[in-house]
Amino acid sequence: MKDRLKDRIALVTGASSGIGEATALALAEQGGKVAIAARRKDRLEQLAAKLADLGAEPLVLAADLTREAEAQRIVRETEARYGRLDILVNNAGVMYLEPVAEADLGRWRSMLELNVLSLIASTQAALGGMRARREGHVVNVSSVAGRVANPMAAAYAATKFGVVGFSESLRREVYKDNIRVSVIEPGMVDTELRQHVAHEASQRAVNVRAGEMRQLQAEDIADAILFCVTRPDYVCINEVLMRPTDQER
């Protein structure tokens, strides 16, 4: 069925590639109007052309979401353009893997700012309008690393456990306002995420692990997000934990 999101307004962060790009396209294919946010404006503009062909009336929002003010600005600009925000997909994130003893704390700090604090800031900015209209849906993209903490992934797991905990606490704060909250927890996905890993041994290990399985594709995660946001108003999918069939942990 097409047009399940006709005239619904969505904002997708981390939309310049991977899960964010696939999600923006999936929402547009169902009739949604889509704002897209990320640092790489050139990639956003390429995606915007595809969204325009789908009738999504795209809004390009180049932003450094490690900065709280930027995470809030993209929500305000989306509301100013379309009049409201119905669906917020907090997808932006990075993955830095390295042993705790050798960790670059500056790098870990930037990961915490993007993976957790920017997500909180954009959500906070969206709540006022959603509460006023008594409707809205916040989708937070976490990871299986928010359920299972592996060696070399201490800080990444800390951010993703944080997203899961934040999402459930938020859900319990806003369900009486008819606002839905979903958290998506993918396993290994074939995206650019592993390219962020600067620690050579950790990057080799994660690449070997990825090569041993049929990885999830970005479109698989987009399908899960689309499923969540197209349920009837009285249905809230709280969590979606999904792994490749070949992934044990």
Automatic annotation (TrEMBL):
Gene3D superfamilies: NAD(P)-binding Rossmann-like Domain
Family: Belongs to the short-chain dehydrogenases/reductases (SDR) family.
UniProt keyword terms in alphabetical order: Oxidoreductase
Keyword Translocase: no
Annotated Pfam families: adh_short (PF00106)
rRNA-binding keyword on record: no
Listed InterPro entries: KR_dom (IPR057326), NAD(P)-bd_dom_sf (IPR036291), Sc_DH/Rdtase_CS (IPR020904), SDR_fam (IPR002347)
Protein name: SDR family NAD(P)-dependent oxidoreductase
Ketoreductase domain ranges (all copies): 8-192
Any coiled-coil regions, as ranges: none
Position of the signal peptide: none
